[in-house]
Fold this sequence. Notes:
Blueprint: E1 8-15, H1 16-21, E2 32-38, E3 47-52, E4 57-64
Antiparallel strand pairs: 1-2, 1-4, 3-4
Amino acid sequence: xAKNKEARxxxxxxxxxxxxxxxxKKSRGISRYMTQKNRNNTPSRLELRKFCPYCYKHxxxxxxxx
Length: 66
């Protein structure tokens, strides 16, 4: 018997503004969050507004590949 693909998958959300700026002396790193999404309900990439401790504000965090 073949197994079904799991509907719930883990995804990593990364701050888009930190990635655009790149690494410099002021930036200590890139903010990342882990969450889950239902592959059947949201097949496209996930984007959420989350707090970035490096930018000190709420920014768009987009899904990245593992």
